[in-house]
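Progress note, sequence design subtask.
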């Protein structure tokens, strides 16, 4: 597999690309995502996506239909778990919010543990696209950890040891850790899957640690020993030096690479007073290697 060449990113674009940090991320301005994009623009966006791992499209106002159309220009939409298919008439759109059944702030913020979306699927999600609909006046950030850089920072002996390890990702276990027991239908819809712990990105050829809250244990090791090893690696990989904190802007659309990033929501706002609402779509990836 040939690694992706960053120099292939065309700097002559009809929109602006501005890096957000030295670690990852770029802001894109001058594009209206509610309109179909031509192939050259899609190719340039995807090159930027591979280079920066996270893209923030500024000043957007998308309906659910428009978000679906934008997402499908970069791949096939991934189905959500049974409990997350909550957008009426839009099963591929997941409404992420802290609102209760009456539409009032509940005080509860979900997805606060480090994770990679749909990592329990046979072909884990390649990208997540999250559109900010309603934001609190302050806070409500999303944090991202760069699994490329975290892997590269390991010593040579540990890299060699991890290269052939498999990790079991389990939706059932991650929900149990949240004190929720899944129904048989939910378990059948998302059974446990094994993936390389140091997976190879299919487009860049780089290795990235692949774990997070859905990671249950390591194949071939006693469960408790495997879980302890995963926790140690996650502590390493989510150090501040590997983490970028994104401060949301109204209307912003974030698109990030689940194959090399972990993410989590931050509770740095009053979730009992202020609504925080997003529309989420995910793109289906490929089997891991």
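Output:
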């Amino acid at each position: 597999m040939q690694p992706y060449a960053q120099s292939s990113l065309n700097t002559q674009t009809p929109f602006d690309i501005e890096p957000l940090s030295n670690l990852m991320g770029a802001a894109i301005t001058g594009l209206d995502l509610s309109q179909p994009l031509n192939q050259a623009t899609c190719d340039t966006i995807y090159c930027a996506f591979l280079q920066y791992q996270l893209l923030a499209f500024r000043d957007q106002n998308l309906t659910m239909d428009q978000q679906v159309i934008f997402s499908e220009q970069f791949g096939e939409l991934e189905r959500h778990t049974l409990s997350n298919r909550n957008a009426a008439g839009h099963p591929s759109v997941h409404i992420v919010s802290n609102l209760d059944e009456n539409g009032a702030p509940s005080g509860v913020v979900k997805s606060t543990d480090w994770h990679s979306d749909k990592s329990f699927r046979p072909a884990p999600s390649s990208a997540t696209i999250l559109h900010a609909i309603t934001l609190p006046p302050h806070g409500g950030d999303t944090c991202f950890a760069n699994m490329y850089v975290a892997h590269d920072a390991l010593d040579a002996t540990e890299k060699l040891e991890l290269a052939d390890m498999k990790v079991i990702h389990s939706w059932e276990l991650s929900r149990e850790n949240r004190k929720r027991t899944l129904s048989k239908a939910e378990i059948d819809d998302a059974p446990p899957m094994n993936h390389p712990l140091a997976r190879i990105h299919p487009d860049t050829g780089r290795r990235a640690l692949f774990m997070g809250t859905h990671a249950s244990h390591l194949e071939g090791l006693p469960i408790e020993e495997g879980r302890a090893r995963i926790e140690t690696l996650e502590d390493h990989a989510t150090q501040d030096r590997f983490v970028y904190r994104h401060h949301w802007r109204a209307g912003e659309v974030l698109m990030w690479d689940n194959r090399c990033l972990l993410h989590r929501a931050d509770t740095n706002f009053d979730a009992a007073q202020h609504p925080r609402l997003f529309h989420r779509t995910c793109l289906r990836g490929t089997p891991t290697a």
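The radius of gyration is 18 Å. Work on this subtask will continue into the next period as scheduled.
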